[in-house]
Amino acid sequence: MHKTSTSLLTVLLLFLQGCVFAPRTTQVYDPGCRITSRQMDLQPVQVASLASCRGNECAGLLALAGATAAASLVVSGSIVIVGNIAYWFEKQGRCNREG
User: Fold this and answer.
1) Are 78 and 86 in contact (CB under 8 A)?
2) Residue 89: closest CA among 41, 14, 37
3) pLDDT (tens digit, 9 = 90+) per residue, 7-41?
4) Which end of the chain is more exposed for a tag (fewer CB within 10 A), N or C?
């Protein structure tokens, strides 16, 4: 691998280290429907730090941290999409639009 590519990959993995993504539900007010409804989004959560890791022994840990962050993004992102679709249908059933 080219040295620049390796350096960029290392920097990217350092930013992702110990970070996972979790779905979060919040309440939002919709003035058009005059109701409070729920919506989901992703919240990054730091679970560990690899700052003390040095040298070649860290390569495996950094790769694992990057894979864990990517997997949590895919799984949690899917939960958020499905949850927001369900909340949208719930909101449509409760909407009180003036007309």
Assistant:
1) no
2) 37
3) 655 555 555 556 788 999 999 999 988 899 999 99
4) C
